[in-house]
Amino acid sequence: MKTKWEDQDISKALKDLAKVGQNGPWVDHVWNKIEDHIVESKRSFLDHKIWRPWGHPVRWVVAASFLFIAFSGVFYHMNQQDSMDKADMVSYLINVSEPTANIGKETNFIKVSPLISEASSTDRDVQLIADDDHSDTFSADDAILL
Amino acid sequence: MTETEALDRCRAGDIAGLHVLYELHRTKVYNLSWRMLGTQQDAEDAVQEVFIKVFDRVKNYRGDSAFSTWLYRMTTNHCLDILRRRKILSFMGFENAPEVEDKKEDGRAMNLGISPVITTALEKLPDKQKACLLMREMEDQSYEDIAKVLGLSLGSVKSNIHRAKAFLKEWLEKEGVSVEDV
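YS: structure for the whole thing
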């Protein structure tokens, strides 16, 4: 029994390995997979545009993050609008329900809430109108009626 | 259909051309992948991926070298990529290459009259040495072609083959395997 290996023995053994697996069930099986892959890749561009988020866990995370951000944005915006409306209403009610707060310390002047004054009349929160100024709309109406 | 006609049809996007190339070269691609990767399943996957690459990249083949050289270059690089990926996975602690598959492989090799010892010995070779040896002995490629495929110098190819053979001889003798057994 020869146990001393020479280069040509190694070469022969490796060449014998090359003869293995020439035919087998893998031949058709692998070709079918190649064919399927190529046919699939030849499908039109739009056919590949069907997005199925449940296809992969990462897509689930992406979809959930997108929905979370979108809904958070909507709720935040709605709450902001709501709190602004409430603040305006509270300030209006305070002004209306406390008439003494509308009388200033200066004599001959009445504080008028910006809510019931004209929008373009002043840049201050409280407009000061002279008490003895009779050129307002009521006086004008009275004059016409008289 | 000749190989040149098959290549032309393949370039035109005809799958029949690829089928001819597959029939002509599948065995060598399969055997090279099997010996490089170690399992039948990995070899089948490699054959599939290599021929899909051929279909996609056949337009880049200019005919400077034989088609078989270009194909084996692609196969070898593909297998080396897989082996590199495996090393990274094993470094990260992931398992691969199930034992059941290996035993099945050995059984199949035995049925064909080929001892599994050669396969086991090949597994122990470093990737570059294994690639050089298999391309030289199984595919009968020239040293120049192997050097081109693997991006090595001619001297490096020869020394890799020499070292691989020396290792195989030493390992087989140490294991007490006789030439007649294989």
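YS: worth flagging: The longest helix of chain B spans residues 67-91.
IM: good catch. Also Chain B touches chain A at residues 13, 15, 18-19, 22, 26-28, 30-31, 34-35, 40, 43-44, 47-48, 51-52, 55, 108-109, 112-114, 118-119, 133-134, 137-139, 165, 168-169, 172-173, 176-180, 182 (CB under 8 Å).
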